[in-house]
Amino acid sequence: MNTMAGTAWPKNIDGKVAKPSFVIGAGDITEWPTNAAMKGYDSLLNNRLKFPAYDILGNHDDGGLAFSPTMINWLKKKHGDLSYTFEKDSVVFIGLWSKFDPKGR
User: Using CB atoms within 10 A of its CB, is residue 7 exposed (0-12), middle (13-18) or buried (19+)?
Assistant: First the structure.
């Protein structure tokens, strides 16, 4: 992601890739929500990615049948809640979390 800006689009599109304003993590950040997985992902975002990242959690991020609050607590600390909004260039984005129900209800 950091090196994409300035690279050429395919010839039929033409032009160059602009610097991303942000990235969105669309869930299933980890297969199992361990502290090591959370710290590894958080480290990538904070130490390597050169622009903001916004995340929502997927069904694997709360542990499913083996519930773990690790990623839930991380997301709340990072974004203030499990569902949240942010604004970029006068556009409001909505990150919605939907609790995983292992029984399919």
Answer: exposed
3-state secondary structure of 75: helix
- The residue ranges of DSSP E strands in the chain, in sequence order, are 23-26, 53-56, 84-88, 91-95
Q: Tell me: the pLDDT tens digits for 11-26?
A: 999 999 999 999 999 9
- Hey, what are 32's tokens? 């199992």
Dihedral angle over CA of 45, 47, 52, 56, nearest 10? 10
- Per-domain boundaries in the chain: 35-95
Mean pLDDT computed over 35-44: 93
